[in-house]
Amino acid sequence: MMKKLRYIIGIDEVGRGALAGPVTVAAVAITVNPKPKIRNPKPRLKLRDSKKLTPRQRETWFGYIKTHPGIFYTTAGVSPKIIDKINISNAANLAATRALTKLVKYLTIVKYLTKSKVEVFLDGGLYLNKNKIRVNPRSYPRLSAFTIIKGDEKIPAIMMASIVAKVTRDRIMVKLHKKYPKYAFDRHKGYGTKKHIKAIRKHGPTKVHRLAFLKKIH
Q1: Which of 10, 11, 94, 111 is most exposed, with minimal Cβ within 10 Å?
Q2: Is 153 annotated as a binding residue?
């Protein structure tokens, strides 16, 4: 039965437009055979893109995804320093590639995935760098990867990935707030709100700010 397992993987990112913090990508795998039962964790709490959910709703869905036996996920991030060096699009694609690599390694080692067919769907704007996917080619599954415009509105695995990525990054920014309390990262999560820009102008940038992005606000 394990050899017949097939997966659909959804990949999405958050933090592309932020002034501070990492860009974070999640890869979520859902088994197709046998197909798992996916139910709303609460009445009327429909699965949606993370932007259409409240923080509490995202946490509820994240807890559901985390404990569901037929759903698996990994995350990866790229730091502001690397974003400044290679630009945000390349950084997001690098994070997507890293997240997929980690997930495939997990499925290969823990779930005995070998030459099973795996379909990968990335939200629009994300692409894989297949030359940087580091796995054992003998055990690597047959991958078919597609970038889908507005995939976070169409494909459940991408919707889940958007939720996992958003919750993961928000938690990172809350931790960074404790280190840099003057910038209120816990509120705006690194995005360019008026309060955030005012704090940057008053106190200067931190090590977690994207210097290339800050040039646009001065």
Answers
A1: 111
A2: no
